[in-house]
Amino acid sequence: MTAPSTTTTTAPATTSADTVVPVRFDFAAALKDSLKSAAIAFGLSIPILAFKTDQSGGDIFLTPRWGLVAIFVSIIFGVRLLQHAFMATKAYRLATPDPHQATEAVHAEPNAFQKVSRFGIPFFLGIAIGFPFLIYLIQGGMNESRYWVDLGILILTYVMLGWGLNIVVGLAGLLDLGYVAFYAVGAYSYALLSTTFGLSFWICLPVAGILAAFWGIILGFPVLRLRGDYLAIVTLAFGEIVRLVLINWVDLTNGGAGISSIPRATFFGLPFTAGEGGFADFFGIEYHGMQRMIFLYYLILALALLTNFVTMRLRKLPVGRAWEALREDEIACRSLGINTTNTKLTAFAIGAMFGGFAGSFFAVRQGFVSPESFNFLESAIILAIVVLGGMGSQIGVAIGAVVLVGGPEVLRNLGFLTAIFGAGFDPNEYRLLLFGAGMVAMMVWRPRGLISERQPSVFLKERKAISSAHVKEGHG
Amino acid sequence: MRWLQDPILDVQHLTMRFGGLVAINDLSFQAGRGDITALIGPNGAGKTTVFNCITGFYKPTEGMIALRKPDGSHMLLERLPGFSINWKAKVARTFQNIRLFSGMTVLENLLVAQHNSLMIASGFTFLGVLGIGGYRKAESDAIERAKYWLDKIRLTDRADDPAGDLPYGAQRRLEIARAMCTDPLLLCLDEPAAGLNPRESHELNALLLSIRKDHATSILLIEHDMSVVMEISDHVVVLDYGTKISDGSPSEIRSDPRVIAAYLGVADEEVEQVASEIGA
Amino acid sequence: MEIFVQQLINGLTLGSIYGLIAIGYTMVFGIIGMVNFAHGDVFMLSAFIALIFFLILTTWLGMTSIVLALLIVLVIAMVLTSLWGWAIERIAYRPLRGSFRLAPLISAIGVSIFLSNFVQVAQGARNKPTPPMMREVIVLFQGESGYNVALSYKQIVIMASTAVLLAIFWYLVQKTSLGRAQRACEQDRKMAALLGIDVDRTISLTFVIGAALAAVAGTMYLLYYGVVSFNDGFVPGVKAFTAAVLGGIGSLPGAVLGGLIIGLIETFWSAYFSIEYKDVAAFSILAIVLIFMPSGILGRPEVEKV
Fold this sequence. Notes:
The structure holds 3 protein chains of 3 kinds. Chain A is mostly helical.
């Protein structure tokens, strides 16, 4: 983004004929354009909005709902008109210099990362660690905070998945649309190992990670020479194949019905049960169902922080620099003696390993896994988290996860809207609709994500963030 | 005729075909150890294709490319996988259209070039992640080496800037420094002076001469700028339409009528003009 | 033998639907180099548009001639779906032109999620059946075991209209100035703009044509299967994309050829191997083709310049 021109020399007060100051707001033109948009919106809403197909038995019939179309069209009209008004004012403001301009330094502002990192990282970490207590205080009780701790666990799971995928997409520049396959491998590894062999979570966790990494290499190997969108599509195909095999291989996976009664997590051998020998009994405290939840919360927090720690460490190691170099220019990498095949495979394997860890956590949390938890939408959400956060930026990915996973939860609390839209209105239905629209809006608004600057892994004198204009997105 | 007695690179009967197109036809030449060898020829003569064969980006259709190590052993470059040509055979290269890691800092570019030795020092990542082993020491050595080259190409002040931010001439120098950080025996430069102004190209000559003097690195370069070629090279090989038309010292080349004809067509009256231009 | 011929007919019918969708992928990829991930959902949307108009015409306006109704539905679906194609390009892709390379792909995934959920919210999650229509069949021959090899009217309509529309479309792309502009934009967008080609308009028109052909496919799909649901976009979309890649992405005859091949593979796979794994087969073919012959059957190989 270029800074707005600060070299405008026209004096603010003069309105001589040759100075081009945009008209403040051309109402007629804006109206015309808004009407045009409204007409298009009308065209789009026929017939999908205007008629609803209803079934009774085998018959299908139509119910017209022109009122809805009218609301939709007028919303589009209004939004478009407001947009015109806003843009015109903004253009006017930019074109008329203000008195402070001459003394304002253009690039002195700290970049987004610096702004976030100075206070943000300790702040976020503090919030994350103290979250169950904060919620306990705010909600005033264990049972009341259940929903929030559960949401925290969900968000942290996605933070971890985002960080894992960030290694593949953000650092190595390999676009992976099938990341959920490794999540599934991890989840099913734990589910199968614990239900068939009775192995404990702490043994299964590393095994699941290793199996996922192994699958990362197996699936990564054939796609090494693919680039760009092709790589994305093949990884998508692999993700879908894994899911379809999980559905159809009933002997092993119990098919679409999934695997249930997976052993729950234990506190290093102590189950979270009310009776003798349980966690509460051992520590001599009163049993509460939330104890397991809080344990799970800290478990996923620890796993996520492990992912982050390892990734930060890897970035400063030759393999991490080779990933980033690979994203920048694969041919130059080869000419410098870097084995690009192995470098890509390590990125796939390590990213997959963290996906596998997250997967076995998912299984232990839910106590149930089924193929439907690992569909393409999950991959899309994880990828959207990475891209919204800013590829390669750890804190950005964490923010992305909070926004994309926590944001839709706001919809649950919009019950008052039923007063406007009628009793049948369920805001939760619109979760994915808004999610899709949000993905588009975010790409249009900030294609490089919230934190697009890259932090160098090493410096001689001064650490300067690198503007996204230079950072490449990789061939795959 | 040093290149015949102690060649570092021996290219024999190299042929490269793309479908029906013959880009290089039965090319044989040697580059001497410690020499600066220039590969020249009109546009489309096949010079970059020769480079791509030497550095493993193309597999030659026929022929042999042997690199002779100082201990006398041979490595056949056409049989090595692409990345081994740098790592095992110690051949480094630059590119005609600069290929820096533009989103990484200048210093990071030079550290990526030392990937393989750092990789060993970090215990192939396993020890490095755990923070044990001598990685810290190896990295500071690598930074020292990078600093040496930064000093040499006068970019120390810009070490923490992204490589993509550098002006063109500095990018060319950085690419050479990056290739030198891999500690090569043979450095292949694809038009290093392209786009440089006269002062920069003069500096480039000094840099290349000092690389030859201070390091055990021989240089093979493609160049159109005759001032660079004539001034610094010890040996010139001239290509046209994929075949070698002349091979010798700069003074022999500049008076070779076949070379002049290849560069300007065969009109006799123009030959003289060329001769005077190149100062023959 | 009889089963083979019957599956051949079924496969070609299915293949022509895939081929029509594949053209949208191949054209968009050719001109702006992106996988229009939302194209499968545009196809699904068009099937819904067709369904609703078919109901309007037959139940409300009492039209008795199914063929005439279908013809009108086809035209309306093409027009309205084109509008969707145009709007999607305008809102979700055009602002991203020349931006970060991943951005359009992510945006397209967003559009895809949006469209399928929009249809779900607006029309409900249940499968939508059409009233039964065109159930007549022509028995081609009877096998010894009493198995009839039949060609249904539906199949004739689908294959015939595919052929006719492809011919029209072929003329459009090969012989008109629009086609020339498209090919110029494929080669070099900047140069085309310098020579006075309205690049934005050409790209818009590409999306419009792609959407119109998807609408034909959507209408035919509805006619053939008699049922549509909001999540019917993804899998046919992926299969059509496979077809586009198999035929050689960027190549129009390739897209049709690829569609027919994928249609045949799918029907034969279902008939002779296992119906459960038919989507696995489709995805595997996609992966295998992209990995081992990324330039497809009729595409030109991409050469990497050093």
